[in-house]
Amino acid sequence: MYERPERFTAGAIGEPGERVFYVQATEQGATVTLRLEKTQVGALAQYLAELLADLPPVDEADQPAPDDLELQEPVVPEWIVGGIGVAFDEGRDRMLVTFQELVPEDAPEDSGSTVSVLATRDQCMAFVRRAAELLAAGRPPCHLCGRPLDPEGHTCIKTNGKLH
Which CATH number is 7-139's, of 3.30.2450, 3.90.1200, 3.30.1460, 1.10.10? Predict the structure, then answer.
C-alpha cells in the first residue's frame, strides 16, 4: 500500500487513437506503474471529483500535490488494471484508491494483485485535472454518436454507416 505517496498521476503514451494509458504512484522512491483503459481513467477522475465535491471543507492545508504530473520513466506496467475501488478514509482524510489486476475469468478468486493508494485531497484534485487534460488531448467525438473521429473519417451508426 502507498500510504503517503508523493505522486499519484495518470498519463498516456502514443498518438491519439493509439494511446496506452497508465496510472502511477510514488512513495519513498518506489514507483508503481499500472496499465489501464482511457475509460477507466475518465471514470476514476469523474468519481473522485464527485466525492471531493461532497466532502466538507477542511481547515488544514493538504500536502500540496506535485506540479509535474508527467509519467516517470521508465514506463513499464506491473500489470493491467481490471477493477478500481474508491473509498474515503475519514480518519486520515484521504481517498483510498484500490486497483485490482485483470485476471482471466477462470482464474481462482484470490489470484491477481492489488495496489492501494491513500491519496490526499490535493493529489486527487491534481489527478482529476490531469485526467481531464489527457482526455481532451484525444480524438474529438462525433457530434452525432459520441464515438471518436478518425483523421480519415468516421463511419457513424447514426447515419446508417455513412462515412462523414
Answer: 3.30.2450
- The model's pLDDT over 134-150, given as tens digits with 9 standing for 90+, comes to 988 877 777 777 777 77
Q: Which three cell numbers stand for residue 3?
A: 500510504
> How does strand 7-13 pair with strand 114-119?
unpaired
Domain range list for the chain: 7-139
CB 99 within 8 A of CB 22: no
For residues 2 and 11, give the distance between their C-alpha atoms in angstroms, rounded to a whole number: 19
What predicted TM-score, i.e. pTM, was given to this entire model?
A: 0.83
* pLDDT tens, residue by residue, 45-82: 999 999 999 998 876 555 566 678 889 999 999 999 99
Cβ of 36: how many Cβ atoms within 10 Å?
Answer: 21
Of the chain, the end-to-end C-alpha distance in Å amounts to 48
